[in-house]
Amino acid sequence: MKKAVLSAALWVTLGLASTPSAWADDTQDFKKILDDHWHQSLTESPTFASELGDRSANGRLSENSPLARQRRQDFNDALLTRLAGVKATELNPQDQVNYKVFLRLRQMEKESYRHPDYLFPITNREGWHMFFAQTPASLPFMEAADYEHYLGLLADYPRYNAENMAVLAEAVEKGYTHYCTSMKGYETSISTHIVEDVTTSAFYSPFTRFPANMSEARQKKVTERGIALITEKVIPAYQLLYKLYTEKYAPACRKTVGITSLPGGKDYYSYLIRNFTTTDLTPQQIHDTGLSEVKRLRGEMDKIIKKVGFKGTFPEFLVFLRTDPRFYAESPTDLMEKAALITKRMDGQLPKLFGYLPRNPYGLMEIPSDIAEKTTAAYYMPSQGDGSKSAGNYYINTSLLKSRPLYTLEALSYHEAVPGHHLQGAIQKEMELPNFRKYHYFNAYGEGWALYSERLGLEVGFYTDPYSDFGRLTYEMWRACRLVVDTGMHAFGWSRQQAIDFMAENTSLSLHEITTEVDRYITWPGQALAYKLGELSITALRREAEQRLGDQFDIRAFHDMILGNGSLPIAVMEDLARDWMAAQEAKNIKHAQNNKQN
């Protein structure tokens, strides 16, 4: 297959293709709506536009002023009005799916304006200043135009920073701040970029490497402009943010853990659950699901403890895992090499699990030292644009090595790289989808797929070390615990320490990892629920397909179907999966009938 056309091919397989004449008018209206939305999206997100090769807004950052937010709200309302005039039933089957997805996104955006979403521009591990600091590592810098674009971003940062600072100040005034303990030390994410020697700044790094086709004179001129902008624009902006955060925001931090303690917090948390999980589950339903999964997984973990011959209690086994030197890398290089070996071995097994593999590769990178101690064990960053000029990257945290256990490295690598985030994201970018779907990410689908991918290692002969298999279970247990502690803290009055204790009692994660994770859940309510709920949906669909198709079930075809429709809300994914099952059943019946006749 020279080009990924899985989504279109799926519709033909389902026997749903038909002539376009019947839906021409509504199709054109819908296409115009999508085109207008995409154009506005690029206008509102100039940095993303530049990643796609659109230089019309070169050197400009996005806007977050009250006028800009109102403009986006008005535009979204206008889109909903126009969508109401399109008869979805008159669209071809593939556009009916596009319509369902697009309508849900517009409805969720409309609802977001009723909530204090915008008043939380930071979490305990994220913020606009941190994203901006990653710009030098994320841009390509392959030609002179890339440097001009970067210089423009440096020049525009004070305006961008001021608009976001105004939001932070408004959050303080209205009382919508984060929980104090979870934000402890956050100011270092700002102060690390306030340097006296510009050449030590993260923003200076692009000027230490230039493409061969840039003359020395041009390099010198660009470097001088860069130094001036970092000195006169960027660093002073970080100083202003540091002053605002330390003198106003931090002293006004929230004294209660749960987001539901804020005015309108209960309604806001329900919205966040719908937004991140794409389900209508209640906090109680999610909490109970988590407790059930914790119980199931605990039984599987006990079997491994017995298998390795450990003589002691479950808590004692966790202490053993957290303290035995054999389970930890000796150096950052050692950790990176082990991760490289794991992912390379999985690369060779992917054809057993998938019929289609993407052309875009991925690399391994260390998480930047300035954010390493405050962030997660690893993360994935997709390639820019359509992936034609850059690879995706699996970032690994090599700081605090005694809190990065090797027994979880297999599961972590399958989740972040292959067959997890990289495989799913790279395939989606190669598909023939409307742009709004090609570049959109539904948390429950994407994180659910990545968690489901962790188990796929078993199916191709990995996790041969029982401790590593225990690590796989502890990662799944970690996601099950999230259902319990996120709802526990934000809906049922749990304290931060209760959440930490529950995680410590049920997972073999290090105490450092557990603490940073709980603080993440406190400052990012609802997002952590997406992983396990998404995985449970995919797993349930697979079991249903296995039952319905019997010995005709093809794991490669099932995975191609799940990934071949791109990122979707859970309900839409389930509908398409069952359509695929029905089509496979019909095909199998027809094949059996033909064989009988022959």
TrEMBL record:
Pfam families according to UniProt: DUF885 (PF05960)
Phosphoprotein among keywords: no
Family annotation (InterPro entries): DUF885
Keywords linked to the UniProt accession: Signal
Keyword Signal among UniProt keywords: yes
Signal peptide: 1-24
Protein name: DUF885 domain-containing protein
